[in-house]
Amino acid sequence: MPTVAHHKLRDWITAFLRHAHVPEADASLIAGVRVEAALRDPLGFDGFAARSLVHVVERLGAGGLNARPNIRVEHEDGPFAVIDGDGGIGQLVGVRAMEHCLQHVASHGIALVGVRRSSTLGGLAYYAMMALAQEYIGFAATNTELRIGMPPWGGVTPTLGNNPFAIAIPVEEGRPVVMDMSLTATEPQGSDAGAMAHRQALLSSGNVARPVMGGHKGYALAVVLEILCGVLTGAGFGLAHAHQQVGSFATPPDLGHLVAAVDVQRLIPLSLFKARVHTLNQQIKASARAPGVEDIFLPGELEFERHDVRLQSGIPVTDDAMLTVQALAESLRVQLDV
Predict the structure, then answer these.
(1) Phi then psi for 277, rounded to 5 degrees?
(2) What CATH class is the domain 72-266?
């Protein structure tokens, strides 16, 4: 599989967004978040990632996304806030929401920010991991459009998104513990959103999930996260995100997010917390291995290893992703440095 340097992929994405009238600084930030996801993802920059980029560009052109959003705090009460994303690109809105969240943790020990009128965030780990710089525990969650939808347990009508969430935990030594997962093991491939294909749904443990929807546990989590990210924040929820409701790319998606950060020291001394997490991690890593298993990985460990390797060797780009990127460049008359 061909690879592309991380800085080159960032330049490509930035160029596409700039062509769609996104300001330079915002375009670079959004591209950086997308590249970080590709550095961690098992497939690198695949067809799904490429198509989602095309959708962003098309939505910007159709008016369904705002290239220059006025992201503002709509309501605030102590450590709690609701942010209006003004139809902006999700990566930009998500970063601004977590930045606001982190500004308030020192005063209150915890902060929780809900977001409405936003769009797809992409990989959730980035936002949760923003809290690690201040040695806080970070949390991020979102609902999604029903292009990646699941029916309720026992039903057949897609009613819920795959509603991913992430938690990042600081540690004493080694890599932070970072869980980042969606609630379905499959996602749409190709132009038919109903055609589901197994996409190596690797959980942070490294185990491959079965090619099914979320199961009864994934369904239960999806319901709760739909309430927290959609209902609680005032964003769209459930069937409001069905394809027949969203319609064309001219319709703003109105997704909802929830981000939070916790100052561990309000509960336990940070050094003691880290030492206890380290002890737990050692116990887990020391577990007797099942036949054929060479190592036991903590949540996020594989992603960090993959990230470091790809910074040096490049990000894998699947054939369908490259074709999609080249087609987008031709349609926009954007010259790519390949």
Answers:
(1) -60, -40
(2) alpha beta
